[in-house]
Amino acid sequence: MPAVIVGTVGMGDGPPRCVGVRGRAVWVLGGTTVQTVRGDAGSVERRLVAGRLRCPCGGVLAPWSYAVSRVVATSSGVWRLRPRRSRCVACRVTHVLLPTLLFSRRAYAGMVIWACVVARACGSKVASIAARARVPVSTVAGWLHRFGDRAPRLRQVLMGVLRGVDARVRRVVPAGSTLGDALTVLGAVTSAVRGRSSGLDTVTDQEMASHLTRGLLLAPSCDLKSINTNPFLVPAQIPS
Ligand SMILES: [Zn+2]
User: Fold this and answer.
1) How far is the CA of 54 from the centre of ligand 1 (A)?
2) pLDDT digits (tens, 9 = 90+) for 21-66
3) What is the gyration radius of the CA atoms in the chain, in angstroms?
4) Spacing, Cα 152 to ligand 1 middle (Å)
5) Rounded to the nearest whole angstrom, what is the distance from the C-alpha of residue 55 to the centroid of ligand 1?
6) Domain ranges of the chain
7) What is the pTM of this model?
8) Which of 170, 143, 154 is closest to 209 using CA atoms?
9) How far is the CA of 189 from the centre of ligand 1 (A)?
């Protein structure tokens, strides 16, 4: 049984607690990692049951109950969902399968948040962005503040990702702001990934941002050093 690498993926419910070692396996309790998945609940379920979803360790993910129900505000109403939980048959770590349309622990859908981020990068005022999105100004300001703080580092990390998915890239034209620069590089990553698989030809920048950060882009803690570059093309990302 392979050893578990604890802490290499985004934490959904706090850090895992190591409770012992049996053979080569590390057993953890009290924490669940987050893996992002595309597709609706039915698609996720089919892939999960068929053994097509993989753990970062390479093991097959098996069904393992459900995460807590949540209600997310979208631009057209509310989305009630209960993300699937899975468990790796190899390392036994459990993972919440978070839709890429969401960021972890945000009460608004990813596209609502993303529209605000893009508007800010285009120069709009926070108050007008919030009014247009029908989101409290303080909430929007919080998203933008956190994203803005992380934008320089995100851009730097994304440049490395971009070179990995498109070896032809030499430079990216500056957008004139740290936020804009980060979005520009992210857009280039998304474009490169779209071209690599027909199953990913509709992936959006917002989904890519959620996937790369394991949903934690706007979380209080987001370790960009462990950005999720590995499973770009694994079946977990391709709805069926
Ligand atoms: Zn595993």
Assistant:
1) 8
2) 333 333 333 456 888 888 889 999 999 999 988 888 889 999 999 9
3) 18
4) 32
5) 5
6) 1-99, 103-230
7) 0.81
8) 154
9) 26
